[in-house]
């Protein structure tokens, strides 16, 4: 946290938000000491506020005593309108039903993809995406499908950054990645092979509304079955087009 987080005169609201904001996907559970350190709230104040948040069920405790986000916040989160998710979900279910593979929907949020929906089954290959989770754009199929339709200035700015490399297969060379994005735009879909996670490959198609990618629909399967990806492209693109029609109509 920045030094300003410990400045006197912070409002109670800012302290509560800092406490709630201390949790993330990498740290879904924290001790009180960890929570105070990450939020920049003094331990005694954190202890008092955490007690009130627990009483309101904004926070709860795991069996080992660590704190985690409580059910009340989940309930509030469900009230946030997400028209895209509501319209797209039947298409995700249909695509999963016809393929039996992991299907997810993502949007761009800053320099990352934000997963807004997902349908999966017990027999599908495990994947790292989760609803509400974020991943970098360039190693993911949905990320490439979104990035390919961004304005040139955005793509150039993205490629100029130091790009993380989750696996040895991740494409990080700007020139090569730019050519791949051009191919995605020309073909209307993206393919990846073990770029985000070893053992999995993916196909993704943009959800285009008036030429703009408002989201991307992806399907993930085991890399041992990578040869099956081409046959999944058409149903994937058809589902993405269906979502686009429903959303843009």
How would you describe this protein?
The structure is a single chain. The protein has 2 domains: 3-77, Arc Repressor Mutant, subunit A, CATH 1.10.10.10; 83-248, GAF domain (Beta-Lactamase, 2-Layer Sandwich). The termini are far apart. Mean pLDDT is 89; it is low at 1-6. It is globular and about 60 Å long. 33% of the residues are buried. Helix content is 42%, strand content 21%. The protein is built from 9 helices and 9 strands. The longest helix has 20 residues, at 229-248.
Q: Could you say which overall geometry the principal axes of the C-alpha atoms support?
A: globular
Number of strands: 9
Radius of gyration: 21 Å
- Count, helices: 9
Main beta-sheet annotation:
6 strands, antiparallel
GO molecular function: DNA binding; DNA-binding transcription factor activity
Domain HTH iclR-type: 10-71
Keywords: DNA-binding, Transcription, Transcription regulation
Protein name: Transcriptional regulator, IclR family
Furnish the topology, listing elements before pairings.
Blueprint: H1 12-21, E1 29-30, H2 32-39, H3 43-55, E2 59-61, E3 67-69, H4 71-77, H5 83-99, E4 102-109, E5 112-119, E6 134-136, H6 141-147, H7 152-159, H8 174-187, E7 190-193, E8 200-209, E9 212-222, H9 229-248
Antiparallel strand pairs: 1-3, 2-3, 4-5, 4-9, 5-6, 7-8, 8-9
Helix pairs in contact: 1-2, 2-3, 5-9
